[in-house]
Automatic annotation (TrEMBL):
This is C4-dicarboxylate ABC transporter. The keyword Cell division does not apply. One of its GO terms (biological process) is transmembrane transport. The keyword Membrane does not apply. InterPro entries: DctP_fam, TRAP_DctP, TRAP_DctP_sf. GO terms for cellular component: outer membrane-bounded periplasmic space.
Amino acid sequence: MIASLLLTAAALTPVTSIARPVEIKFSHVVAENTPKGLMAEKFKELVEERMPGKVKVSVYPNSQLFNDNKVLEAMLLGDVQMAAPSLSKFQSFTKKLQVFDLPFLFKDIDAVDRFQQSETGQELLGSLKKRGLVGLGYLHNGMKQLSSNEKIVTPDQIAGKKFRIMTSDVLQAQFEQVDAIPLKKPFSEVFTLLQTRAIDGQENTWSNTYSKKFYEVQPYITASNHGVLDYMVVTSAEFWMTLPDDLRTEIKRAMDDAIAYGNAISKKKADEDRQLIAESGVTEIIDLTDAQRQAWVAAMKPVWKKFERQVGKDVIQAAEASNE
Ligand code: SIN
């Protein structure tokens, strides 16, 4: 009897008074078994373990919800709450992050990490605020390699070849610098473009090249380590600032822990995925000698000067200093 009275009272409670969990849709374009995919799942796990019933996270991988060129607009409209686009995909929001695309600027991912944690790196993390986005942290994927239909060892061998790039003017200039033909295309189209030979090659990390099977349709990979592909985890200022203070603090703590996890596995993943590609026997991996690499540096480095004004000389110098 008492139970049925309680049930009736509950049924009459206005819908507005039911506390619903905060919903976070996390959209990304890569496969689950990558640093970003695993980080997003870790974030979901931590949030739901630490804030049960209060926050619900849904992760949408493989461009299921949005591709990276649309996700930031969708975030500002409130259709998605979190994403981690590549640093190359923010150029319509700020020119400063273009520093990460300059070829041969960072000697390895540890240098990238030092720069991201430096004062300048942390300032760049806040550089999207004016455009309504909050940078929650940097996440590593790794250094980029060149995959191609033909063996490429020297910069002149790339001339006239079509390469897919992310939507970045620096990456466009990088390929034009060596007389290649860059094409800005979404990540979700790369495999088909390669398979149909609409393009000759692409640049990407070991992890993306393995998980999206690009290597299966690319007989050669030049291990050039010529640039970095890292991410910024972002949310909209509107969503972030309307969260209750205690939840915002806890969600940020979960994100920091998830990013630390993603960063810790990124290097191991790069090594493992390179190894798996090598073992496939489908793709030949070409390691460059120091002299061969130096020829690429000389060919591509003039790009820095072209973007010095937009990026800032001080920012480039701070990035260079992280190599020491
Ligand atoms: C990503 O790693 O998020 C995608 C990179 C790309 O577009 O090549």
